[in-house]
Amino acid sequence: MILDNKSKFKNMGNTLIHEHLTVDLSTVKGDNDTNLDDLNAMIDDLKELKNNGINTIIDVTNIGMGRNVRKIKYISEKSGINVILSTGFYKDPFLPDNVVEKSVNELSRILVDEILNGIDETEFKASVIGEIGTSKDNIKDIEKKVFIAASIAHNETGAPIITHTTLGKLGLEQLQIFKNMNVNLEKVVIGHVDLNPDLDYYLKLLDNGCYIAFDTIGKNNYQPDEIRAKFIKSLIDKGYTKKLLLSLDITRKSHLKYYGGYGHSYICDKFIPILTSNGVSDENIKTILYDNPITLIGG
Ligand SMILES: [Zn+2]
């Protein structure tokens, strides 16, 4: 089921907040692996995830990334996983031409329309603005334009914003744009912070009242999951359990089990046991996977 209004959000249950059911970055990346176009492989992966206790995915694929709402609806129905949809524009060099051509206000109209009226002539509405992103070393002007359009759309609709940081960097700079635009920072998720393992940085981000997402779980080549777990435990010990969110950000066919990858259910089979062995309680895990996403989306 697509969850796109308040009455449906109560069905969220355990939720992964940064995934992609359809995504196609293959034109820019020149790598067909980054086109998630095998619906059956995705359905199998998500059925297993559902069997392991995850009910809902926030799909942060947006305009220009290969988002396909009709396919998402089909995958959701066949797998039994609920989906929450997003609007937005990703980051340079994945931004469609109209981000260059249109004004900030025109861009914000597109986002608001997808939130209030529906996506691609369907009845299904976006409930999140995401993933909107920044490049590694500095925020490009075109990315700043998207952040400002997103802020305007957030201020009009209240929709939460989920960001992409490149290798976890520039989260504070992202927050500064939102602050300048009077965004409610309690509705902002700074993404991919697990790729920048720095407790002091996390605390500075959290000082702003935002969420931070450990949302590249399973990408052990970037960052061992043991390290992710240790930082999550430290943040729980410092009282930030209510500001943490989890996901895997699976974007490649080779991540799916059918293609020999670890699959979405890795978070349940492998990562949660690592959290437990690091001293994270079942109650903490429930807060992070169940309570926090509902507060973000519906609260
Ligand atoms: Zn992503």
The small-molecule ligands in this entry are: zinc ion
Q: Can you tell me the CATH superfamily?
A: Metal-dependent hydrolases
Determine the fraction of residues in helical runs and give it as a percent range.
40-55%
Q: How do the helices and strands follow one another from N- to C-terminus? A: HEHHEHEHHEHEHEHEHEHH
**Total DSSP E strands:** 8
Biggest β-sheet description: 8 strands, parallel
| CATH domain topology | TIM Barrel
Radius of gyration: 17 Å
CATH architecture: Alpha-Beta Barrel
What does this structure look like?
- This protein has a single domain (6-297), classed as Alpha-Beta Barrel (TIM Barrel), CATH 3.20.20.140.
- The chain has helices spanning 6-9, 26-29, 39-51, 69-79, 97-101, 104-116, 141-157, 171-180, 199-206, 225-237, 266-277, 282-297; strands at 15-19, 56-59, 82-87, 126-133, 161-164, 188-190, 211-214, 244-246.
- The chain is globular.
- With 299 residues, the chain is α/β, with parallel strands linked by helices.
- The chain has an eight-stranded parallel β-sheet, sandwiched between helices.
- The chain has twelve helices and eight strands.
- The mean pLDDT is 97.
- It is 42% helix and 12% strand.
- The protein binds zinc ion (ZN).
- Residues 18, 20, 60, 131, 164, 249 line the site of zinc ion (ZN).
- Zinc ion is lined by residues 18, 20, 60, 131, 164, 249.
- A divalent metal cation 1 binds at residues 18, 20, 131, 249.
- InterPro entries: AryldialkylPase_Zn-BS, Metal_Hydrolase, Phosphotriesterase.
